[in-house]
Amino acid sequence: MTDMYDYADVPKAICATLLERIRALESPHDRDGMARFGINVENAYGVSVTSLRGMAREVLSERRRDVEWRHELAACLWTSGIHEAQILATILDVPALVTREQALAWAAASESWDTTDLLVGNLLDKTAFAYELAHDWSAAQETFVKRAGFVLMAGLAVHDKKADDAAFLPFMELIRREAHDERNFVKKAVNWALRQIGKRSAALHSPALALADELSASRDRSERWVGRNAARELRSESVLRRIERTR
């Protein structure tokens, strides 16, 4: 592969190069498409996640093992405030070097659901304190911090294959407690967490479905939405077949 960067230079110089590449790929058409999906495009250029992952692969092919360097580069990209640069930062950063303070700062600074979800899926659900963040953030006032808490629950249910099913039972009470939240970006994440936990195994399917039915009967509109949407999927033939295979 042709070396596109001067890797002897400091991360800030590479950061500037990556920001220029993002700007060069600006697509007003794609940015408008992002906006139609509810993405905040105030600081966006309309660059696809696929293109950003391509940039990340180029960097990682040369500096994958230089974790301190990557961590510094990710911090520079995030600080730019550019939508796509922040997504790139979540791909390049190193979970082992992320602190709780950084995790909260980035989650609180997120201004769009997609940045929040990619921050969790690319980075935070691989940290050693992911379960603690999910618990703590489930009660947050900030929309996207709270969303991140429930997206963490959903992501861990799918990706943490080694975890005991019992690790997810405490999340059920958090889902019950917060299902009343009417904010669209929050209630969809609450629903996502309930569905993913319920699909993880036969042992979790029954309590998740019971909670979905309980919420479905609620007088609260948001709780009913969360419950009915989750119950519909958890009772679907495809999910029931998958659950049967886990027995």
Portion of residues within helices = 55-70%
Order of helices and strands: HHHHHHHHHHHHHH
Question: In the residues, how many domains can be counted?
Answer: 2
How many strands?
0
Cα distance spanning the termini:
47 Å
SSE map:
Blueprint: H1 11-24, H2 28-36, H3 49-63, H4 67-79, H5 83-92, H6 100-109, H7 113-122, H8 130-137, H9 143-159, H10 169-178, H11 184-200, H12 202-216, H13 221-234, H14 237-246
Structural description of this entry:
The protein has helices at about 10-25, 30-35, 50-65, 65-80, 85-90, 100-110, 115-120, 130-135, 145-160, 170-180, 185-200, 200-215, 220-235, 235-245. The chain is mostly helical. It folds into two domains: about 1-95, no CATH class; about 100-245. α3 crosses α5, α8 runs antiparallel to α9 and α9 packs parallel to α11.
Which structural traits does this protein have?
14 helices, 0% strand
In short:
With 247 residues, this protein is an all-alpha fold. It contains 14 helices and no strands.
